[in-house]
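As a point of orientation, let us examine one representative protein, giving the amino acid sequence and backbone structure tokens.
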Amino acid sequence: MAAAPTVLKGVTIAKDVAEAGEVAQGLKKAEGAVVGTEKAAQEVKKVEDAGAGAAKATEDSANLKPYGGPGGGHHVPAKSVFTGNSAYDINKALAVPNAELTRLGLDHGLISVSQQRLYRAFVQTRHALTWNDVQKIETEALISGGMKSVTAAEATVKQAINALKANGITAPTRIPWGK
């Protein structure tokens, strides 16, 4: 029985080693959980930042209204893109009202000059004008005219294009300022 205390010590040591292994595994799991929590927190932050960016874009986007007649603001897209389309009504088409131009610090003349320059450059490509092309040109024109962000300009143009589509305009009719 002299070996019994040694065996008991061996069993105790084996138990301690096993418990230490379990503790080590537990620590690894805890570390993994902490890293996972940190990654999740970073993802939440990204989503929050994106939401804040979208809210800012909405705030910086133009509140479009039907043009309504002379002095009704700036047409987005340019009205001459739809010359000849019987479904297009110049007074019902959405525009950036003059008060919105002022609120957003936009220069109506500069936007119009940019539209003209960009559509004239597009003519040189000899491609048919698509909604995608209109989106790009009109977005760039708004930015050239002082719109603070690409996201806000894109949102403004998309709103106008979607309204045109909803009113039966299936495609641009012509390239303005294209001789």
Summary: Residues 31 and 37 are 10 Å apart (CA to CA).
